[in-house]
Design goal:
The structure is a single chain. By secondary structure, the protein is of the alpha+beta class. It contains 3 helices and 13 strands; from the N terminus they run αββαββββββαβββββ. It has helices at about 5-15, 40-60, 115-130, and strands spanning about 25-30, 30-35, 65, 70-75, 80, 85-90, 100, 105-110, 135-140, 145-155, 160-170, 170-175, 180. The protein has a 6-stranded mixed beta sheet with strand order 3-6-8-9-10-11. The protein has a 3-stranded mixed beta sheet with strand order 5-4-7, with no helix packed on it. A hairpin with a 6-residue loop joins β10 and β11. The termini are far apart.
């Protein structure tokens, strides 16, 4: 994607959240992806993950936090994503500009939505390794399962995650050196 095309998409994307129905927007593959507000359980899982990670980060890696809401943008690749949880140095959030550089991101977490699961399983699985993000955690409350992806390596269609570890809700999983207990994660069904 050339700079002019991405700049045009970014201008349009910046105007869209003014609608009450739109929670956030993303840009990938020359498309604007409109996201509606997440379901309550979606938000609860993201909160529980960030809380668990922050407790460990406070002890082991001062100055690094897990938080929600920041956009991660690589204009050269034509990608802007808004992870449900992002792990990065806190100081990055105090820098100039509106978006986070993906080179500052240690890990991202996506809680799969009811309405658009392919965004997390296909689009973001393609984009996050291209952006150089070392760890990607997918949490799927539709089925009570998930995947930890890591080890970015070259592939025929661009960088990809070479390591994939599946888990079920109830497992304690490892993302880098951090443990996440998934036993408190609800499914969308109950």
């Amino acid at each position: 994607m050339n700079d002019t095309t991405y700049a045009r998409l970014r201008r349009i994307a910046d105007q869209l959240p003014e609608s009450d129905d739109i929670w956030a927007v993303e840009i990938s593959g020359k498309e604007i992806i409109v996201m509606m507000g997440p379901a309550k359980r979606h938000g609860l899982i993201a909160f529980r993950i960030a809380r668990q990670l922050n407790a460990q980060l406070d002890r082991s890696t001062p100055g690094v936090i897990a938080q929600s809401g920041a956009e991660v943008e690589d204009p050269a690749l034509g990608i802007m994503r808004r992870p449900d949880v992002i792990v990065l140095p806190e100081a990055v959030l105090d820098e100039e500009g509106d978006a986070v550089d993906p080179r500052d991101v240690f890990a991202v977490v996506e809680v799969v939505s009811k309405s658009n699961p392919e965004n997390d399983y296909a689009g973001k699985m393609r984009d996050y390794p291209r952006m150089g993000i070392p760890w990607y955690l997918i949490v799927d409350p539709r089925k009570g399962i998930g995947t930890v992806l890591s080890n970015v390596t070259p592939g025929p269609e661009g960088p990809r995650y070479a390591t994939s570890t599946a888990y079920a809700f109830g497992d304690v999983i490892t993302v880098d050196t951090y443990k996440i207990d998934t036993s408190g994660f609800p499914t969308y069904q109950g």
